[in-house]
Amino acid sequence: MTVKVLDVKDLSGGYGDISVVRDISLSVGKGEVMCLAGRNGVGKTTLMKLLSGALPLTKGQIALNGADISTFNAFERQQKRISHGLQEQSVFGGLTVRDNLSLTGKLGDNALTHLLIETFPIIKKRYDVQAGKLSGGERKLVSFCRAISEDGLITLLDEPTEGVQPENIERMGNVILEQAQRGRSFIVAEQNLTLIEQIADTCGVMDHGALVSLYQASSSLRESVLQELLL
Ligand SMILES: Nc1ncnc2c1ncn2[C@@H]1O[C@H](COP(=O)(O)OP(=O)(O)OP(=O)(O)O)[C@@H](O)[C@H]1O
Ligand SMILES: [Mg+2]
């Protein structure tokens, strides 16, 4: 059996005594894109934080390429190339776009940088502007580019398209697919069903802190997820 890039078993956790995520098991293979859908407050962000180490687990195991990383902190997981694009406060307002994008040390004169700058001309236009002066949608784009530029084995993107205009959402989807073809894996918490349809190999639906369904990509994916969200 092929070892999965990320293998999660019975994961639970939350905020201090408040338990949010309950007994989640999932796995993501090399080059796979898993989307996570679910209504507001069901625990998508909390799950992402448990995976990146921003929150401690209360139960369960996380394995990266077969090695147990459950006890690793956020820094150690980042060193193992788990990248996390946060839903909120995802850029440093006092720094320029250029400096925000250079924080990982990975954004230089390389193919990935050129891909991102060519894909999103607005990023280049705003290169020397303080990120705090950008619009919400522009900030999300900077955050997305930073997470992509980290070149993670697995990249967690938490609602990357919030406030982003449709043509750039489609471009984000193209970047994710292009990077996945190169063998990178993604978990994307997302409300935008068009993006889910564009990028998902699988789509999990969360409710009350649990993963309640898992759909494979198909022509009926959008309909199935939508039905479930309306329940
Ligand atoms: N810092 C916190 N302390 C205590 N409870 C929290 C905290 N952050 C979130 N929660 C609670 O955890 C639950 C899940 O929140 P979470 O942000 O993970 O949901 P979500 O699915 O990402 O929602 P959204 O779609 O709005 O982003 C909610 O009930 C929320 O109130
Ligand atoms: Mg969230």
What would you say this structure looks like, in words?
By secondary structure, the protein is α/β, with parallel strands linked by helices. It has one domain: P-loop containing nucleotide triphosphate hydrolases (Rossmann fold). The protein contains nine helices and ten strands. The chain has a six-stranded mixed beta sheet with strand order 6-7-8-3-9-10, sandwiched between helices. Strands 2-1-4-5 form a four-stranded antiparallel beta sheet, with helices on one face. Helix 8 packs antiparallel against helix 9. The longest helix is centred in the C-terminal third of the chain and has 16 residues. It is globular and about 45 Å long. Bound molecules: adenosine-5'-triphosphate and magnesium ion (MG). The site of adenosine-5'-triphosphate (ATP) has 13 residues, from strand 2 and helix 1. GO terms for molecular function: ATP binding. InterPro entries: AAA+_ATPase, ABC_transporter-like_ATP-bd, ABC_transporter-like_CS, BCAA_Transport_ATP-bd_LivF, P-loop_NTPase. Belongs to the ABC transporter superfamily. It holds the Pfam family ABC_tran. Keywords: Amino-acid transport, ATP-binding, Nucleotide-binding, Transport.
